[in-house]
Amino acid sequence: MSESKPESGPVPNPRVTWEGCSVLLDINDGDRLVFARLSAGSTLKIGNKTFSLRPLIGCPFGSLFQVESGKEKPYLSRFVPPTEENNVQDEGGCQSQEESRDNRAIIDNNQAQSLTGEDIEAMRRQGATGDEIVEALVANSATFEKKTQFSQEKYRLKKQKKYAPRVLLRRPFSRSICEAYFKKYPARIGFLRVDALSLLLSMANVTANSDVLVVDMVGGLVTGAVAERLGGTGSVCSTYLGGTPYPIEIIRMFNFSNEICKRILRCSFNDLCSVQNDMGEQVNQHEDVCAMESQSNEKTSLSVSTEDVHLSSKNGDTDLVPENELSTSSKTCKAPKAGEKATKEVIQSWKENGFSSLIVAAPEQDAWSLVKDLLPLLTYSAPFAIYHQYLQPLATCMHNLQHEKMAIGLQISEPWLREYQVLPSRTHPCMQMSGTGGYILSGTRLYTNTSQP
Amino acid sequence: MVKFSICKMLLMDPSKKISFNRCIRDGDLVIVYERHDIMKAVKVCESSVFQNRFGLFKHSDWIGKPFGSKVFSNKGGFIYLLAPTPELWTLVLSHRTQILYIADISFVIMYLEIVAGCLVLESGTGSGSLTTSLARAVAPTGHVYTFDFHEQRAASAREDFERTGVNTLVTVGVRDIQGEGFPDEFSGSADSVFLDLPQPWLAIPSAGKMLKQDGVLCSFSPCIEQVQRSCETLRSNFTDIRTFEILLRTYEVREWKMDCSKVDDGGSVACPPGKRRRQPSSEGSVRDNPSCAAVMARPSAEARGHTGYLTFARLKCMS
């Protein structure tokens, strides 16, 4: 029985796109990932053609679109794959039939295909669909019949991707956003892999009504993932050393409601400690160290936004949309504001109660110098999770925490993730694998008589 | 059965959340930490005692202290009292079945795209390890409906959920999901479905009916043959089918102090590789210092080789 949601206003988990929403476009089954904001004027470039994204507005997430040749120009059309298609390809005669063919006689000399590029263009002009072109290529290939069944499938798929590309409309979620960035621009998120991100959220016990303290130097990915879990309750405080907040543009890709955005707050470390005068000296030291960090971060921040959609024309190389001045319809595409400065009242309440947990994702910083100052802001027995690309800073941090008796249950973990290809008679781990997703130091803050609330 | 657990694991009631001002009270559930691998869940009771190899601990000494405190026994030994979290609970709960651990649990929750307000279906419940974390993820407005065909296990799970305070978010049903599928009342309303069954392919068609469009399913299976059969069945109505393995490698840390009075280019016993503490020497020469210390990390000798394969899939968009 579905729970009736008490909150009025938009459905918290919308499954249909709307004008102005942020989407993730998956082109050709993961070959290319693009973030976009849907509007009447937004477009997508595939190959050397530009397509309007208007047909995507109002469609359910998970819808598939295929490039079709229209009267004037090609367009994206909603496409529902027939279920038989999959059955024939993957099951059919594969397992029962003994494969007698092999590739001993096939010579790879680029001569097998008798259709030329011009022939194909001519077909297109006559209104042939992408699928028809693929079939024509299959029919005109001298070696096709000699190929094994698996090989034939691979060939067909390759041609389909080129001549009838498909676009899958995906919901931006911490999972898909993290995967997209990890694939394309991992450095911007400090090589934080999706399993490492999921561990941070669990180990820090992120749940409704908690107040989570975050040091996010990975573009806002962690702040966004925390806010997503909080679901409009509690708060997430993204803190920063020095005077300039770290960029958290990735938050805009999440399609957060106003309620959630309101709870994403920013506060400088100085302000969090301002009540305690004896913290003043420590704070000054940090400012010097971090002024440099903030500047280098600012440079990367500009290239990580999705105010609008127009992609660069460089052969579709820039898949994650850069901030572009040519935004045609920025008026209708206003993203709700997140990352407002925390008010004095909120800061006071954080100080009185302490934060429920801490997550640090600052791949360029020294873990111990951050943690030793941030831990006192946590309530007693609060869990924390610190992510780093390198092992050594975490080892030093763990050792110091043990030595100072500031925390218990300390553990350094390295997540290991491997994907499998599962197909009849072709099941094995994938050939490619990520070498590292970083390291995480987790633990629980202890109460000591000398701790300051 | 007396309802206890005033200190709830999840912060359902903002006024009861752990904070500087919130101390241990009579009736709270605490996690007693003896060692990183020895922990126990204990319900605090004014008149009770806790006994272990360090001695006798009076609960009355605990009441009024903050969570995270170190408390002493009559013999001078000590333990720590921690506030319960789903992670700690997974480490202390009684194993009625093989359970899922934090690496699989975290990945499943992220990949199933579970957020506050979601409706999640699960089978089997087992020992409730994953269920507790699912409850955390859907709080405060969502719900988890979990099913197990073993009546006693279902009852034990219900007890645990009350103990940890997640019972308002979880409903346990006794049902054979492989044989009967999920109840029709949930058709088209589940955001996510999780299966941990010996023959998940029997439950997959029903799961497909329960899910909303683009909803996500996960099946956990220890054996590759189960995975192959599940994937075959998934292909008709699901897309984006992906199978993973996830493991955690842990590291130990040690400080190594060495006598470094003879450090030169010859192969003397130099400090082990690693980060050296910066010495305040003007020359910058290590020779000036009699000892140098380095903190080093190495992988733990014990490691888990396999838990199970996680297969995820999205319900195809048909309309």
Write the layout of secondary structure elements.
The complex is a heterodimer of chains A (453) and B (319).
Chain A: E1 22-27, E2 32-37, E3 43-46, E4 49-52, E5 64-68, E6 75-79, H1 83-90, H2 117-125, H3 130-139, H4 149-163, E7 166-170, H5 174-184, H6 194-203, E8 211-216, H7 221-230, E9 235-240, H8 258-262, E10 264-268, H9 269-273, H10 280-301, E11 340-341, H11 344-353, E12 357-361, H12 367-374, E13 383-388, H13 391-403, E14 407-421, E15 428-429, E16 439-445
Parallel strand pairs in A: 8-9, 8-12, 9-10, 10-11, 12-13
Antiparallel strand pairs in A: 1-2, 1-7, 3-4, 5-6, 5-7, 13-16, 14-15, 14-16
Chain B: E1 29-35, E2 38-43, E3 49-52, E4 55-58, H1 59-62, E5 69-72, E6 78-82, H2 86-92, H3 102-111, E7 119-123, H4 129-138, E8 143-148, H5 151-163, E9 170-174, H6 177-180, E10 190-195, H7 204-210, E11 211-221, H8 224-234, E12 238-259, E13 291-299, E14 309-315
Parallel strand pairs in B: 7-8, 7-10, 8-9, 10-11
Antiparallel strand pairs in B: 1-2, 1-6, 3-4, 5-6, 11-14, 12-13, 12-14
Helix pairs in contact in B: 2-4
Tell me what the structure shows.
The complex is a heterodimer of chains A (453) and B (319). Chain A is an alpha/beta fold and 453 residues long. Chain A contains 13 helices and 16 strands. Helices cover 30% and strands 20% of the residues of chain A. In chain A, strands 11-10-9-8-12-13-16-14-15 form a 9-stranded mixed β-sheet, with helices on both faces. In chain A, strands 2-1-7-5-6 form a 5-stranded antiparallel β-sheet, covered by helices on one side. Chain A has a two-stranded antiparallel sheet with strand order 3-4. In chain A, helix 3 (130-139) crosses helix 4. Helix content of chain B is 21%, strand content 32%. Chain B is globular, with a radius of gyration of 25 Å. Chain B has helices at residues 59-62, 86-92, 102-111, 129-138, 151-163, 177-180, 204-210, 224-234; strands spanning 29-35, 38-43, 49-52, 55-58, 69-72, 78-82, 119-123, 143-148, 170-174, 190-195, 211-221, 238-259, 291-299, 309-315. In chain B, helix 2 (86-92) runs antiparallel to helix 4 (129-138). Chain B is of the alpha/beta class. Chain B has an 8-stranded mixed β-sheet with strand order 9-8-7-10-11-14-12-13. In chain B, strands 2-1-6-5 form a 4-stranded antiparallel β-sheet, covered by helices on one side. Chain B has 8 helices and 14 strands. At the A-B interface, helix 1, helix 6, helix 7, helix 13 and strand 14 of A face strand 6, helix 3, helix 4, strand 11 and helix 8 of B.
